[in-house]
Amino acid sequence: MKIIEITDFAAPELDIYARLTENQLVNRADPANGLFIAESPLVIGRALDAGCVPVSLLTEPKHALGKGRELIERCGDVPVFAAEEAVLCELTGFHLTRGMLCAMRRPELRSPEEVCEGARRVAVLENVMNPTNLGAIFRSAAALDIDAVLLTAQGSDPLYRRALRVSMGNVFLVPWAYLPEGDWPGFLRGLGFKTAALALREDSLDIGDPRLLMEERLALVLGTEGDGLRHETIAKCDYTVRIPMSHGVDSLNVAAASAVAFYQLTRR
């Protein structure tokens, strides 16, 4: 175990943690060298279980010699940067959850055809922008029997640090992929899915409608915060589905709506 005490905040090895933005970490110009940051022992462990390759770690010394030791040993011969909590807060600009970060190489993207193979229920996220919502949706997807998550390219990145943290690493437990541009409802139909757009419209089916549960393969389509799904998307879907509301509430947050829909529409 190579533990390196942090003495120089300007050290280039620390750029990953202190100075690179999420977009710089993604490195779209050179995807093979893209990185992400896993925060907390739980998330790091699930990333390692999924085969992600570590580059370095940043931790408090007590974790390096304590509860984080096993994780560090799993990371092999990579640098382990260590400093006390106050120093880490100064370096990163925020309090570290669980006191441990790991920089990792981004895994190779999977194709939507691959993640949908054998899937019965998938979630489709159209332009969901908030990493907190995205992480919460992945956590619900893992807990409530969603077989895969499909995303449009304009939405948030499942490997953003906050999305990973909120998901509690469940991003690594549910297969996910990006949809092709253009008529992706037609693409899903070609894979054998019926599509159900969650939208509050007068002609929507109640989410408890038995016809939805009878579908062998169903894609549950959720839209961006605020505006919801595009009208063009709703028009191309096979069903429009609503969650009934009480007390004049007009809608649920997309993460809350996803949990309700996943629970209701994955029941056998």
UniProtKB/TrEMBL annotation:
* Keywords, alphabetical: Methyltransferase, Transferase
Domain tRNA/rRNA methyltransferase SpoU type, by residue range, is 122-263
Q: Name one GO biological process term.
A: RNA processing
InterPro entries to which the protein is assigned, alphabetical: Alpha/beta_knot_MTases (IPR029028), Ribosomal_eL30-like_sf (IPR029064), rRNA_Methyltransferase (IPR051259), SpoU_MeTrfase (IPR001537), tRNA_m1G_MTases_N (IPR029026)
Q: Where is the signal peptide?
A: none
GO molecular function terms listed in the Swiss-Prot or TrEMBL record? RNA binding; RNA methyltransferase activity
PANTHER family on file: RRNA METHYLASE, RRNA METHYLTRANSFERASE 3
Q: What name is this protein filed under? A: RNA methyltransferase
